Amino acid sequence: MRAGCFSIVALMVLVSCVYLLGAANVFGDDTPTTRPASALDHVVKDIDGKDVDLAQYRGKVVLIVNVASRCGYTKQYAGLEKLYEAHKDAGLVLIGFPANNFGGQEPGTDAEIKQFCTGTYHVSFPMMSKISVKGDDKAPVYKFLTGKETAGEFAGEIGWNFNKFLLDKSGKIIARFESKVAPDSKELTDAIEKALAN
């Protein structure tokens, strides 16, 4: 009888431990097992409202840019499209994230942004739904891109529209470029070509 009771107690302890370990995985967002290891470990919405798992771009070189339609740098859309067209067959993916964090320069809806980008600059690279790239409502992917623990030497708040993050084929951040760095600048194109060659 005692042996039977002991077995039941042992089983209950075992079940409790398994449950608690499972709960830690579900609720422990800050544990190493649940923290994203790459900027590509995020699911976002595209400009049409559909889920996009950024993990699908692993194996490619990725350039992530926060964009806006009424900025002094908005003309960079033309250069970004040209850059994308020149390198997409070699494995470059360019992702635009519209954001209204700077001077209210992206006030439109996703539909209006899409119309502007495709109609004015013939953008064909992936465009995502409008997000926040700084502040209390910063999107998770940008928390990763700017966080000290996740971005290392490339960490720091976004200063303005058209900041650029370059990811290697594993999704690791390998370079960051400020707004003033044009899409056709030698420093950006050299970095992309080097990443594509690796």
> Beta fraction of the residues?
5-15%
Distance between the termini: 67 Å
What's the mean pLDDT score?
89
Q: What characteristic shape results from the CA principal axes?
A: globular
Structural class: alpha+beta
What is the helix content? 25-40%
Report the strand count. Answer: 6
Radius of gyration: 22 Å
Report the major sheet.
Answer: 4 strands, mixed
| Element-by-element helix/strand order | HEEEHEHHHEEH
Strand order of the largest sheet: 4-3-5-6
- Can you count the helices? 6
Overview of the molecule:
By secondary structure, this protein is an alpha+beta fold. 37% of the residues lie in helices and 15% in strands. The protein has 6 helices and 6 strands. A 4-stranded mixed beta sheet has the order 4-3-5-6, with helices on one face. Strands 1-2 form a two-stranded antiparallel sheet. It is globular and about 35 Å long. About 9% of the residues have low confidence.
